[in-house]
Predict the structure.
Amino acid sequence: MSRYSQAVKTARAYYNSDDADNFYARVWGGEDIHIGLYDHPDEAILTASHRTVERMADTLGDTLAGAHVLDIGGGYGGAARYLARARGATVVSLNLSEVQNERGRRMNAEQGLADRVDIVDGDFENIPYPDDHFDVVWSQDAMLHSGDRGRVIAEVARVLKPGGTFIFTDPMTADDCPAGVLQPVLDRISLETMGSPGFYRAALASRGFTEASFADHSDQVPLHYTRVHQTLDAYAEPLAPAISSDYVANMRRGLEHWVAAGRAGYLTWGIMRFDAPD
């Protein structure tokens, strides 16, 4: 485990904790634990989060049928299962949390998808696959946890086949965000920086990628984290034996920082698609 960077070690320890596992499994739904696309403000988190997966898949269209897909930072494997079941892909979900991965493997077996979805312990700064191996690399709200996003992009470029596709979402600093205003958010996730649309565009362009689309849904950030806060409040009492009071208090403060930053326009989020050079 010494090969993990400090940022990845921090994220791994957090997602392996009982508090975090119970929070994401019970409050967030334990399937698609990402920012959602909401049709209305009181929609269930899981429904909205799954809509993000569907919208990303729609962006790729028929190319997913028969594709070999790598999901980096795949959480419980919900997106991977959807891509295999509904879109005909064969998927590897690479994820740093062994606790999440064990839960995901159980769900694979329960849903009859163990032969189509492989959940692998590992991190996206050191992808354990050879060059030119995948048709699509997919990621949802995971790369912010890296302390070296340039290395993540280099690894994505390495394992993608010529002409392959990289599609992702990531909570990002707005390109025009004033310096210092995101410190409460960064402190909450134990990071020094976040990526930005400009960073990802430049990093991928330097490796010959072409931007195919960017569906900007930044308005969903405060909506989503408000919904998570509301759901946490609603479930706090019955969850008390499973999630510590300190975790709940810290989560509430963190969610409030995300909401405030989103409403101020300091954060950007959406679906970005880049195509690798042939």
